Every structure is written in structure tokens, then in C-alpha cells.
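Thread: Homoserine/homoserine lactone efflux protein, structure

OP (GT): Posting the sequence first so everyone is looking at the same thing. Length is 204 residues per the record. Can we get the C-alpha cells written out before standup tomorrow? I want them in the notebook alongside the other entries.
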Amino acid sequence: MDGHLWLAFLAASIIISLTPGPGAVMTLSVGAQHGFAAAARAIAGLQLALLIQLAIIGAGLGAVLAASATAFLVLKVVGALYLVWLGIQKWRAVPHGLGSAPLARRQRLFTSGVLVNLTNPKAIVFIAALVPQFIRPGGSEWLQFTIIGATMVAVDVVVMSCYAGLAARIRPWLASVRVQRMQNRLFGGLFIGAGAALAASSNR
């Protein structure tokens, strides 16, 4: 991949990562509730899902998902329901002391991060439309995909880490039960809104 082409892709990756989405909502929510270390587990899960999405696109399945209304609908419904379920869980969460998440909870954060990104067919379709524009015929396709994947993951890790760090800095202001309840309902509403937006999306 030429230097100027990579810089163009880098710029596109930054814009994509900065655009608020379910991953950003999860990162901010976990960072505010449990701190940066816990949010890092969710971020790792988001990146694994991103790599899986790129592998799907590399295998040509992204085009199938874009073309098949049924496949897109099934994955969209699953993703939307999962986000709404996360939102309801967050909305109904009982406020408690701020601190590090228990071990079992930290392990679930990684899995939740994977599922939040992986069940978003709109992201797969979008990446499937974007990535081929930066693949040049005649070069090693897998090498180009490796560079693209490394760039997207690196950018997303930096952006999500900034979100997590920002959320962690405001944790001292969330000590009261009233503020924690407001925070739970804010992020619960954002998750539910993200699920509704996904449910209303199309593959066009």
C-alpha cells in the first residue's frame, strides 16, 4: 500500500472511530462505572470483533451480507435485541459503590465487547464498501488486509482508550446514588437508542 493511500485510509479510520456508536457507548459506560482497566477489556473485545469483521470481508462474505436481505435482517435483529437487552440491564442496574469490576464481570466485559461489534451488520457492510477502495490489484491482498486491519485496530484502540480515560476521570463525580442512577439511565437509554437505530437501518 502506497504511503499516500495509507494516509487516506488512516484519515478514514479516524473519522470512523470518532463517530459515536455502540462501542463508544460501552467504553464510556464501563470506564465511568469501573475505571480504565475494566474498560480496556471491553475495548479488547471490540477489536477482536473488528478483526473478525475484516476476516469476513476478506473471505468475501461481506458482499454476501450486503446483497442478502435475509442474512442482513437476521443479524440486524440479533444485534438490535442484544443492544436493547444491554440497555435494559444498565437502566435497571442498582447503584452501588464505584470500584473495580469483579473478576466474573471483567470476563463478561470482553465477551460483551465482541458481541456489540460483531452483531452490527451495518458496520460489516460499511467496512465492506470502504476497504476495497484501498486494495490495489497486483499487490499482495493479504498483506494489504493486514496493514488495513492493523491500522483500524490501532486507531480504534487509541480513540476508545481516550473515551475510557475521559470517562474514568469523571468517576469521582459519580459517587452519589442519585448520580449513579442518572448515569445508568443515560447509558441504558443510549444502548436502547443504538439498538433502535440498528433495527431501523438497511443494507443500502
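GT: Both are above now. Quick notes for whoever picks this up: Residues 80 and 147 are 31 Å apart (CA to CA). The mean pLDDT is 79.
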